[in-house]
Fold:
Amino acid sequence: MSESTRRVVKLAARRRKCLQGAKAWRNVASMFDRSSWERVTAEEAEHRWLSVADRIHSKIVKELETTECR
Structure:
């Protein structure tokens, strides 16, 4: 396996963990009333996890575009 492929696999695993984290926070948010501070905090945490997942996805796309891992 090439070094580039290893990087993509590692990034994909990190992205998957971020998406799992976002899902967990979404589940936490669903346990509270819409106006509660707990729900707002959980939704903010979910958005942070999704933001990190998006940045990792961008890195994966860039890596695939610049290497032979197509």
The two ends are 13 Å apart (CA to CA). Residues 32 and 56 are 30 Å apart (CA to CA). The chain has a mean pLDDT of 91.
